[in-house]
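Bumping my old thread because nobody answered last time. Still need a sequence for this structure:
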């Protein structure tokens, strides 16, 4: 009888699987709203500092330029964000959150809390702070 394949255990694969689980939990908790974790991150960045440029959003979220542009476009189309040309430099868009965007942000915040609670429940309580510290270190590390 053939042996069962070992689960992939490379760091990249494990991070990818953890990300998939996080995204799935977020989606389950946001229910019928058309909101992804990355859209939530964009809404949060704009809500924290209304009037950001798309470049500022990219820097705040760590999402690449083309994906940021697409996410902003979708959020403008669904009425969550408003985008206008900057007065001093018409090449730059200024992005603001709308009332509908604030509603989506609230829904996403609840989904995020529920997803984080579920994810952290599998980490022993005594190890959670260290776990979060290591993830933060990995997330904010600069490329060599």
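Sorry it took so long. Here it is:
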């Amino acid at each position: 009888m053939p042996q069962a394949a070992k689960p992939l255990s490379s760091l990249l694969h494990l991070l990818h699987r953890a990300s998939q689980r996080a995204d799935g939990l977020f989606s389950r908790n946001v229910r019928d709203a058309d909101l992804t974790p990355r859209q939530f991150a964009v809404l949060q960045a704009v809500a924290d500092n209304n009037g950001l440029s798309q470049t500022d959003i990219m820097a705040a979220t760590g999402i690449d330029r083309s994906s940021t542009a697409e996410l902003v476009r979708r959020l403008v189309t669904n009425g969550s964000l408003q985008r206008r040309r900057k007065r001093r430099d018409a090449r730059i868009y200024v992005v603001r959150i709308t009332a509908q965007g604030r509603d989506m942000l609230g829904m996403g915040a609840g989904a995020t809390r529920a997803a984080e609670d579920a994810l952290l429940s599998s980490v022993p309580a005594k190890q959670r702070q260290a776990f979060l510290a290591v993830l933060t270190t990995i997330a904010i590390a600069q490329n060599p």
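The chain has a mean pLDDT of 89. Let me know if any region looks off to you.
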